[in-house]
Design a protein that fits this description.
single chain
Length: 158
């Protein structure tokens, strides 16, 4: 999850990982909160500190998503997004990957991209994860059957 997105012009956008960066501070503040006496004024103040930190993380995530989606919606006329199997990815990889996957909030990014593309009059396309794009001829559009060992093909169209 080091790279958030790779654009068609080769630019790679790094993930901000707001939660991962603030995790140690959040852990420290929550530990202090758990040790405070129930109903005390100091516990209430500590609750506010923890809530402020959570708010800061949420604001950083939201700010990054808005800047990224504006960048993409302003610079590209056609926006293509692959539909990902998030649940399958969560089952396949471990706990640390799951928290990073939640931190980048892929579904919110796709939602924002779709509404900003429609708002700015751009075309938004969702590509199925099983679409055989490597088997598709870029000239005539026919789909060629290829074994997994074959990586290059010659089409009859030239």
């Amino acid at each position: 999850m080091k790279v958030f997105a790779t654009l068609s012009n080769g630019v790679q956008v790094k993930s901000p990982l707001s939660f991962a960066k603030a995790k140690a501070k959040l852990k420290y503040e929550q530990r202090i909160l758990s040790r405070r006496t129930k109903g005390s004024n100091r516990k209430n103040k500590q609750k506010l500190r923890v809530a402020r930190l959570h708010g800061k993380i949420a604001n950083q995530r939201s700010d990054f998503l808005h800047k990224f989606t504006n960048l993409v919606a302003n610079n590209f006329d056609v926006i293509c997004v692959e539909t990902l199997d998030i649940k399958g990815m969560q089952q396949k990889f471990g706990k640390s990957f799951n928290s990073k996957l939640a931190d980048v909030s892929i579904s919110e990014t796709v939602r924002q991209l779709e509404y900003k593309a429609n708002w700015k009059g751009k075309q938004f396309v969702r590509i199925d994860k099983w679409f055989p794009s490597s088997k598709l001829c870029s000239q005539c559009g026919t789909i060629h059957q290829m074994p997994l060992s074959q990586r290059a093909r010659n089409c009859s169209c030239g």
